[in-house]
């Protein structure tokens, strides 16, 4: 995350993400309830390339901002592709995109951000997705195929009819890497995962995205075969309650008050038990860029110089958590009486 420091007592803020007005060039029904959108900048300028696994903020017709994984070719600088599942309990984000967006409609998108990166080297990259969770894995498959890196994509769906992007994934350069798993019952999932993860050595890297219970089983199965820092995952915002429960976090409870000391600014701000770090900093004129507000996207990460964070996010890796060197300001707190932030 980029930050800039201003003189003491003036505004200190991470650099704001720029946005682009875009026009919808194409819409495809990829599977029941899943629709992909191809967008290009209204001004005709290129987007630039992005890292495989990245996501963008999309502001739809309702004005609601949601994060969606990019699932096109990262080297295609003229268009972005993202897919949206029409959620039955939608608060207006996915519903508006499905029901009101047509070819020619204009939307606003942010610049790509990434907390779900490919490791630079691996004996094998194992991509494991379910349902709409395949979307960031598609962009990874593009990159790995381009680099001739060893990879396999295991895609779990109810049936072929429910497999988004299946025609694409069955064509070169992906066809030889795809393993489609249809109709696997939850009770049989662990055995299926064990069968293909058994071939992983310690230098393999595993990436997973999908519904929370599915991802939990993948993470547990992979953890018996590869080091923890070789397992990478991305959760949906809707999965935060499940992830909290699994991690033993009660999101309705807060830790006690603590202080934030700002290393570059020189000030200290008190964070009471019912106030977030983001809000506490805002009270003294320091704006931290946020997006999801649920510890999913990593937009509000700030470096920690001293103190012990209490991590409540769902985007940091186990090694990042253990290091205590960064914190997601929207949801996390402090176990120590004070945190020193690089602000």
Structural description of this entry:
By secondary structure, this protein is an alpha/beta fold. It has three domains: 94 residues, Beta Barrel (Elongation Factor Tu (Ef-tu), domain 3); 110 residues, Rossmann fold (3-Layer(aba) Sandwich); 90 residues, Beta-grasp domain (Ubiquitin-like (UB roll)). 20% of the residues lie in helices and 29% in strands. It has eight helices and 20 strands. A six-stranded antiparallel beta sheet has the order 6-5-8-3-4-7, covered by helices on one side. Strands 11-10-9-12-13 form a five-stranded parallel beta sheet, sandwiched between helices. Strand 10, helix 3 and strand 11 form a beta-alpha-beta unit. Helix 4 packs parallel to helix 5. The two termini are 12 Å apart. The relative contact order is 0.13. The N terminus is likely disordered.
Structural descriptors:
343 residues, alpha/beta, Elongation Factor Tu (Ef-tu), domain 3, Rossmann fold, Ubiquitin-like (UB roll), five-stranded parallel β-sheet, 8 helices, disordered N terminus, metal-binding, iron-sulfur
Q: What is the fold named in CATH at topology level of the largest domain?
A: Rossmann fold
Domain count, please report it. Answer: 3
CATH class of the largest domain: Alpha Beta
Number of helical elements:
8
Question: CATH H-level name of the largest domain... which superfamily?
Answer: Nucleotide-binding domain of ferredoxin-NADP reductase (FNR) module
Average pLDDT figure: 88
* Secondary structure tally: strands: 20
Rg result: 21 Å
**The biggest beta sheet, please?**
6 strands, antiparallel
Distance between the first and last residues' Cα: 12 Å
Strand order of the largest sheet: 6-5-8-3-4-7
Task: Describe the oligomeric state of these chains in a short phrase.
Answer: single chain
Shape: globular
What order do the SSEs take from the amino end to the carboxyl end, as H and E?
A: EEEEEEEHEEHEHEHEHEHEEHEEHEEE
**What is the share of helical residues?**
10-25%
Task: Give the structural class.
Answer: alpha/beta
The CATH architecture classification of the largest domain is 3-Layer(aba) Sandwich
Give unreliable regions as ranges: 1-17
Keywords: 2Fe-2S, Flavoprotein, Iron, Iron-sulfur, Metal-binding, Oxidoreductase
Protein name: Vanillate O-demethylase ferredoxin subunit
EC number: 1.14.13.82
GO molecular function: vanillate monooxygenase activity
